[in-house]
């Protein structure tokens, strides 16, 4: 990776992010100083712009709307998160993520929706996938995963889920794996599957927990009976713990994550290492394979006024099967971030993170913390 280009990109993004962060629009439905009643509705929005060699110059906006479905004390805040951008070379992304709590927090419904036309990178499959000269390719994607959770014992939830992905590769460019069909799924296609799961959630806050745990398992099964072009299964384990060291302004957050795939998935449905939530510093998909294990720890500290800071470190790797995991190829990531408190009562933050991996780095910006 060209570090000179990285430094120029980061300088531009920092300027634009800081400009946007202090020009945030918001509307508050609760009178100033009225904290006796839960906030029923509020929202924040922000503009952003960025440049990367793959996307070119892009402009966009993001935001979050959060609300409660009941005046009852203890009702968790629901949310709708939206982010979208468009670049001067006609790449775009629209991301929508609603999560709604109702029926006295016993029910939770969510949907994660992507609509995008972007440049991605494929370096091959496996933990030792080498750098190649032409990893880029163009793809279009519409994907949605819908989940419904029902509490059956205090803090325990049963989950049903459905996922659909329509993935196309209009231009493989000069990627050697896609031009020679060296990876399964090089022609794109549809993925459709049903799933189930189990969740334990006793966090004290859904946006910024200082105490409690979120322990989640869910599985998805894809096959022709649902119109899928590929037959495979995904199993996910997402284990998170939050602990305040002294007060709520000194928090240790820990996440362990495992993704296990069986059957014959296309390359774009394989677990991917990297991105803005896990193994920050690595390009999401720089390494991909059927199995993915990750552990990260983050220290969160209130600094002053509306600012906080974080330090994080992570380790993880991908493999074709569990027996292939070992210390030799394990990847490490580390970094730091700045937080700006958008809503002190609900504990919603605007975050800016910079992460580092082996000979790589990444810059991340958005609403809410990484995990």
UniProtKB/TrEMBL annotation:
<keyword id="KW-1134">Transmembrane beta strand</keyword>
<keyword id="KW-0812">Transmembrane</keyword>
<dbReference type="InterPro" id="IPR039910">
    <property type="entry name" value="D15-like"/>
</dbReference>
<dbReference type="InterPro" id="IPR000184">
    <property type="entry name" value="Bac_surfAg_D15"/>
</dbReference>
<protein>
    <recommendedName>
        <fullName>Bacterial surface antigen (D15) domain-containing protein</fullName>
    </recommendedName>
</protein>
<dbReference type="Pfam" id="PF01103">
    <property type="entry name" value="Omp85"/>
</dbReference>
<feature type="domain" description="Bacterial surface antigen (D15)">
    <location>
        <begin position="108"/>
        <end position="342"/>
    </location>
</feature>
<dbReference type="GO" id="GO:0019867">
    <property type="term" value="C:outer membrane"/>
</dbReference>
<keyword id="KW-0472">Membrane</keyword>
